Amino acid sequence: MNKKSNKKNQINNQLKNQLKWNLSSFKANLNKDLYLYDLEIYKSLLFKVSTLLIITSLFSCSPENFNSSGSNQSGNSNLHNQFELSNESGIFGGTLSTDKFQKQNGIVQLELDMGLSGKATCTGTLIEKNIVLTAAHCVADPSIIQIKAIFGLSDKRNNKNIIVPAVKAVAHPNFNPEVATDQTGWSDIALLKLKTNAPATVSVVKLPSVVKLNLVKPGTQLILSGYGITNAVVRMQTINSQGQTIIVDLPSKGSGTLRQVSNIQVINLNANLSEIILDQTQSKGACHGDSGGPAFLANPDGTLTQVGLTSRGTDELGNCNKNAIYTNVAFHSNWIQTNVEQLKLVNRTIASQ
Questions:
Q1: Mean pLDDT of 218-247
Q2: Domains of the chain, residue spans
């Protein structure tokens, strides 16, 4: 085994020792008006996915409870660091979004209540007045007990924010990082049904149809947006006093505030066109907390079409300064339409109980 392989094994072993995700505690209480899981989607997924995530980091939700030294204050340090569940957020290398931008494009902050593990942030977009599009990995953590949609520019509680709980989640049935490949894609896409409609001032985002797969190609410039952290580097490898290679978590900042960044270039699409690969090596892009958030293509009339949603990064430490992988929305448009229609029936089911 060469030195490069040894180094990678050291990194993976260190992360494996840090990652703790209690998959066996996954419980769904369908009698409470909390968060209703579709258990069958995750049965085969959850028992081994944490091992895979050591190698390929998801952007996912950003983690709360980091102290100034960079260590995680919750004892459950750290698949939540891979899923980056944090109270600070934002696109890095970008600018603060306006209220008009957020409302015109239906961008939603998702607050994940992880129980004893704290809270986390993901991003989504409103595709119906009470249905949100986001990433499957944002809803797959078994410790989630509730998800709330926050309509506003930040998670700071004020009279302008309207908060609506989710009542059901549907993740793509093919979402299984354990067996997924770059060629086939991860199907990292999910829908959330909200208890009530979004505020009337928030518009529904424009989505492409399956016949618009050619909208995105190498060289296309996209606009990214999300509530994630503003620093691209969240971990570093170093040597401790005993001469051992260790992974150190760095403090995250900026989470919980909507930001945007323009001129992010498409490098390529994967073999079946289900995922979009973006260049984030120019000190700007999406990071933890932006998961599920939109990649927009500007239309000639000045409006935006959501062509992608944040899935994961390619850095093995979970940093965000390499390539980013986005789920191609057009590729999954038929799945979106089918499941939107099914979710429209949820309120009727609840009302009849």
A1: 89
A2: 3-351
| Position 193 pLDDT exceeds 90 | yes
Q: Which residues, including other chains, have CB under 8 Å from residue 226's CB and lie 6 or more apart?
A: 89, 90, 91, 107, 123, 258, 259, 286, 289, 290, 291, 293, 294, 310
CA distance 117 to 83: 12
DSSP string, 104-161: HTTEEEEEEE-GGG-EEEEEEEEEETTEEEE-GGGT--TT--EEEEEESSBSS--TT-
Work out whether the CA dihedral 190, 128, 103, 156 comes out positive or negative: negative
Q: Which residues contact 120 (CB under 8 A, 6 or more apart)?
A: 60, 61, 62, 63, 64, 80, 83, 84, 85, 86, 111, 112, 114, 141, 289
Query: Which pLDDT band, with edges at 50, 70 and 90, does 348 fall under?
Result: low
Distance separating alpha carbons of residues 122 and 147, to the nearest angstrom: 10
Instruction: Tell me the C-alpha distance between 25 and 22, whole Å.
Output: 6
How far apart CA 312 and CA 324 sit, in angstroms, is: 6
Distance CA 115, CA 126 (A): 26
Residues of the chain with pLDDT > 70, as a percent, come to 70
Q: How far apart are CA 90 and CA 85, in angstroms?
A: 13
**Closest Cα partner for 95 from 230, 191, 246?**
230
* Number of Cβ atoms within 10 Å of the Cβ of 127: 20
Fold of 3-351: Thrombin, subunit H (2.40.10)
- CA pair distance 60, 2, nearest whole angstrom: 32
Confidence of residue 142 (pLDDT cuts 50, 70, 90): confident
Nearest CA to 292 out of 334, 256, 243, 326 is that of 326
CB atoms within 10 A of CB 113: 17
Q: What is the pTM of this model?
A: 0.75
Whether the pLDDT of residue 13 is over 80: the answer is no
> Which residues have C-beta within 8 Å of that of residue 50, sequence separation ≥ 6?
19, 21, 23, 79, 82
**What is the three-state SS of 192-249?**
EEECCCCCCCCCCCECCCHHHHHHCCCCCEEEEEEECCCCCCCEEEEECCCCCEEEEE
